[in-house]
Amino acid sequence: MGTILIDGHIIPFKPGDNILQAALEANLEIPHFCYHAALGSLGACRLCAVEITPKDSSKAPRIAMACLEPLEDGLEVSISAIAAQQVRQHVIEFLMINHPHDCPICDEGGECHLQDMTVACGPPYRRYRGRKRTFSNQNLGPLIHHEMNRCITCYRCTRFYQDYALGNDLGAMRLRNEVYFGRFQDGPLENPFAGNLVEICPTGVFTDAIFRQHFARVWDLKTAPSICPHCSVGCNTLPGARDGTLRRVRNRAHPELNRWFICDRGRYGHQYSEHSARPLAPRASGADTSYHDALTAAASQIKSAQDCIGGLGSAREDLEGNAMLQALLNTLGGIYTAFSDPELETATIAAVSSLQNTGNAPSLAEIELIDAALIIGDLTAYAPMIDLALRQAYRKGAKLALLHSSPTPLAQFATTAMTVSPQEMRTTLSRLYQLINAQSATEDMTETPMTDIVASLMGARKLLLIGAIETLTAQEVPILAKLATALGSDTRLAYAFSGANAYGAALLSPAGSAMVMLEAVEAGQIRILIVAGNDPLGDSRFGPRWRAACRNLSALIVLDCILTATAKAADILFPVAAWTERGGTFINYEGRAQGFAPVFHRPEYLPSVAEVITDLGQYLGHSLQAAPSVLGDIFSDFEIPKPGTTGSLIIAPSLPMPTTPPVHSAQESCSSMWQAALTSWYGDEALASFAPGLMVLIPETVAMIEPTSAIDAGIKNGSQIKLRGSSGSMVLPVQLNQGVATGTIAIARNVLAQLGVGHGDLLELEQVL
Amino acid sequence: MSWPTSIAKGITDMNNILKGLQKDLLHLPRTHPKRRATAIPAMQALQAELGYLDDAAIKKITQITGLSTAEVEELATFYSLIYRRPTGRHIVRICDSVCCSMRGADQLLTAAEEYIRTSLGTVTPDGALTVLPGICLGLCDKAPAALVDGEALGPLNDASLKALLQRLQKED
Amino acid sequence: MEALLTRHLEPAAPLNLAAYQATGGYRSLTAAFDLKPEKIIGIVEAANLRGRGGAGFPCGLKWRLRGADAPSPRYLICNLDESEPGTFKDRYLLYGGPHQIIESVIVSAFALQAERALIFVRGEYAKGGNALNQAIQEAETAGLLGTNIRGSGFNLQIEAHLSGGRYICGEETAQINAIEGRRPNPRPKIPRPSTHGLWGQPTTTNNVETLINVPHILLNGADWFRKLGVNGGCGSKLFCVSGKVKHSSLFELPCGTPARELIFEHAGGLDEDRTLLGFLPGGASTAFLLPEHLDVAMDFDPIAVAGSRLGTGSIIVLDNATCPVEVTLNLMRFFARESCGFCTPCRDGLPYLTQILTIISSGAGRADDLALLDELCATIASQSFCAFAPGAVMPLVSSLKCFHDHYEHHVITGHCPFNETNKKRA
Ligand SMILES: Cc1cc2nc3c(=O)[nH]c(=O)nc-3n(C[C@H](O)[C@H](O)[C@H](O)COP(=O)(O)O)c2cc1C
Ligand code: SF4
Ligand code: FES
Prior knowledge:
The complex is a heterotrimer.
Chain A: E1 2-6, E2 9-13, H1 19-25, E3 49-53, E4 62-65, E5 76-78, H2 82-95, H3 113-121, E6 144-146, H4 156-164, E7 171-173, E8 180-182, H5 197-200, E9 206-208, H6 209-213, E10 222-223, E11 226-227, E12 236-242, E13 245-251, H7 264-268, E14 283-284, E15 287-288, H8 291-304, E16 309-312, H9 319-332, E17 335-337, H10 342-358, H11 364-367, E18 372-376, H12 379-382, H13 384-395, E19 399-404, E20 416-419, H14 425-437, H15 448-458, E21 463-468, H16 476-487, E22 491-496, H17 502-508, H18 513-522, E23 528-532, H19 543-550, E24 555-560, H20 565-569, E25 572-575, E26 584-587, E27 592-596, H21 609-620, H22 627-634, E28 648-649, E29 674-679, H23 692-695, E30 703-705, H24 707-712, E31 720-725, E32 728-736, E33 744-748, H25 749-755, E34 762-768
Parallel strand pairs in A: 1-5, 16-17, 16-23, 18-19, 18-21, 19-20, 21-22, 23-24, 24-25, 29-33, 30-32
Antiparallel strand pairs in A: 1-2, 3-4, 3-5, 6-9, 7-8, 10-12, 11-12, 12-13, 14-15, 14-25, 26-27, 27-28, 29-34, 30-33, 31-32, 31-34
Chain B: H1 14-26, H2 33-36, H3 39-50, H4 55-65, H5 69-76, E1 90-95, H6 98-102, H7 105-116, E2 129-134, E3 146-148, E4 151-153, H8 158-170
Parallel strand pairs in B: 1-2
Antiparallel strand pairs in B: 1-3, 3-4
Helix pairs in contact in B: 1-3, 3-4, 4-5, 7-8
Chain C: H1 17-22, H2 27-33, H3 37-46, H4 59-66, E1 75-80, H5 89-96, H6 98-112, E2 116-121, H7 126-141, E3 157-162, H8 172-180, E4 203-207, H9 208-220, H10 222-228, E5 236-243, E6 249-254, H11 259-266, E7 276-280, H12 300-305, E8 314-319, H13 324-338, H14 344-361, H15 369-383, H16 388-402, H17 404-413, H18 420-425
Parallel strand pairs in C: 1-2, 1-4, 2-3, 5-8
Antiparallel strand pairs in C: 5-6, 7-8
The complex binds flavin mononucleotide, iron/sulfur cluster and FE2/S2 (inorganic) cluster (FES).
FE2/S2 (inorganic) cluster binds at residues 32-35, 43-48, 65, 67 of chain A.
């Protein structure tokens, strides 16, 4: 560690850094375009010119590019030297030659780096007298708008897209002053992180096409620090609202989590809160009503059904809402859980329990530094930013081993990717555990992929084991934890949960209560069900049972901000605030409690779940404590994390490993040889699936089958098959896909739900048409 | 291995070359650096056969190289000798750089454009010719010079150029 | 001087292996394999062989700096991309005698202990490249390439790459990208290609003319080579003379031969015996020199002292019927068109310069345009990413000085003094 002198300021530097990095670190702004903290130096834009005073005073000072200039102790640098200013002025003048000067109608207005740099360095007048070069734009899909004439050729877009996010459908074409950043042909950008182009582009070439549909000038946007509600990673975001509507979401740097980027689900999923079918008025007995009347109706229903009440919270609802619901149920003597799927409940609790035993999950910054990983399932769909972090590890040479039942984008970067059917996952993991415990890879050639995986895991120093909970069972979750212990202390364990607050939900839900609740509803012992932010009727595996059971209810009371199947069936519906319309707390996959602030309020009165429950308590004659003190009782010393801070790990009583036996839906009647596997894509999430922009990109509905299994069954690519599940049958076109396990049919969540089949359940292939 | 180019058309059998390339390369993993190195030879081979690279040819290159269409396009659009637009049966590149220009290349280009009655870089309606301006061809001692299907010609004047174009137009 | 490098060039029908060997070809392999690689490098250093690709960097020093302990595989790249306007010497070498190139590459690779060599051939030279490929095959069959060449224990594979075509591909690091199948933008100079070059391995790039001197140096010694030159120059040099001369061609002459001799004796003087206006001594990316420089030795240092560069040793001659503004505009168009587009000063600065020059040459220039050109050139030359842009503005900066009156005439009268209509009026 040494110091350098920049315009008289003494600046410390880290070894390996360059002048620009040291200056930025010390909050000294050196103008630049092509340098980006995540992408490093390139030296293409030539804006970061500084003057260096030579040690030998007989030599003339020289101009250098700060981003390329290594540091040495005592180096003297001037940003303000006239010669350096002159270079920067020329560079800006060059860059503005072809710029369209369409700033009045440019979406980048107010946050345009080019404009800032031009004001800071450039000549205030134009000397170039020629014509401008013009480009035609491409249609890059529903999420990103393309305006190539504004380009200043800093190469940030392709460096992010190709080098960082490992996408391959955006490139730099042509040469000279005609370099063109685009796709081979018009069409939506395919990378799930493409939306970051909007932020990484220093001018208005790539802008947010969704924001554009309902544009506001950025200085007119109301913003507040927030947390992404679309998965358990908990990326920090900055939503912006105007005139009572949410317009966009941008990244907000968290030093250990998302830093510069977020995924497209996080950026564009917010449209659910502006969905045309969003419930905005309370409803009772099929008609809109006032909040007061809805509360009165709900209270009277509950009173008349004393002791026969269940409360279903949600992994996508905040800690406050879940805790208040639990408190109400405690008061009323009913049952509470946050999970409608008993499988998912046990798996999630097992995962949290495992993490409590083995040590916390690594942050994204730590994941980037691992040198090997074992990945179970599809992280791109369930924790996109963990996928992006693993791409960084891969770029640095990490070996990725993958076990999956259906196609997953990370497979293309895996050293070993092995398809395993859902029902074989457990034996496969156990075998892996045996091999690792025996401390030697078998010589048995029939086990090749397994031995490769064992070798790559045992050869690694910093290791990550990670599984997607959605497609793991409660039996498989602890095997992963056992593997982590067997592999030694530098092995980190993580799970991609389903739901932004799944970790918190698990801490509040007693193991087994989902099954108890479902059976109680089926048996008519529960007459009133309060559902907050959950969709039991739309569940793929248990949906059919919930739908049948709910006919026994005297009232289904639903609190939600999206129109789910359950919300549609509600007897009493309380529309609640979406996450930007209230504050709250999510606990992410690491166990980190992070607070989000209300960004704005809609014209309608939309309370949070916690508020509705508090009010309902009031109407029932119970004065519940406020959420902070409820939470304080559950988690000793708990303080609601302040929005905008980095959050802190939650300290919770340790959860026992659930012992509840696995609950498979009744499958005895089915003698099929085919298993169903859930196949997902990055837009597949409860809230985001109400975002029209993302839904345009939904992959075609097909049944994916591994080629040899298909041939054995006489099925061809493109042929139609009829599938039957517990709640019906469907005809689907077949797509042969190497990424599916043998004997497995991979289908999307909505199809599973229609068939009433869960991941790993048997699926009947009725007919090849 | 022999070199296929549009400049020296028909000197190779595309299929053999592509088969050879594919055989050599298919056993390499996607990330092996050598595989992308076949992009230019593969483009040259295909172009020798097709005259230019259409979108289908670009897709073919992706199979050989393991690159995406965008990555292949990044390369194809950089190089002056890779054509992404149709070309005539004969390609005439007239040098417009300093030595040739001093010795009359500018008039030569004007004359050529008048003769072919389409703009430089496009194909004549009979499909026979594409006339292009080109950078210094390394033929400054023959200025003003041209490369005709890879064959060096020069010095040219209006009359000899016209005769040349006439002859080419009649040839297959 | 007896032709050394061009003696056995037969453009119509280049010598095959047997014929080439009959002229004494491949003899240098025996000489080389008897020596230790460091010894060869020492001899090349002593011979003061300077790079013929443009920059004139001492070849032996470049080889020594690569280091004997560089990790394998090590690469030698023979640069035959020749696209510098005015330069056609490498074409003669390629079309005239591919075996001479192969022999040079073998002994040079041996000196560098490089087990892989690439010859990067300009795309327009495809026909010559095909002959080169055949020659490589011949040499392979004859055991001159491959493993344990002639029992020396030295292994070498030579492969040729045919360029897709662009001037920038001649730049060392852009060339490496081109070979790897990446966009041929230049690479940062740290780490150096000598440690992290092709495929991340130690890589040495030399112009083909540089390399073909090596066999002769080995066979005849460093002293002999140095003495080939005149006026302080070392060795034999291939000079191209083109432009407004009677007999434009390639001439092999002692390094240090003055331009006067080249232009007036060998190239037969100017067209119609016109008066010399000025000349570019080393290709398009060098500075103009004036008649007063005719007697400067055509060697690296003297030409540098005169304010230009020997570059590729390619003289482009302007007579007094040629408008220097027009010629400079043509050069700038060339460079603006061939910019790789990576860095701002070159990508956007060169078209800017071209635009101003276009205005001046059309007669619509303004008095302050000349100062503006100078001002912009200063930044473009010094702040670009690679050596392309500094080379590109060299002729312009010098043209503004050497032919200042011509520029002023354009601006003040609004006419080109050489314009056809003007000439008629005169
Ligand atoms: C824009 C540019 C183009 C170049 N083109 C060539 C070329 O065509 N042939 C060549 O030998 N060197 C060329 N060079 C020089 C090479 O980068 C490199 O210095 C040279 O090949 C080294 O060989 P030498 O040391 O034997 O001269 C070029 C350099 C630049 C900056
Ligand atoms: S100076 Fe810059 S734009 Fe020009 S060729 Fe070099 S890197 Fe490319
Ligand atoms: S930031 Fe240094 S050159 Fe672009």
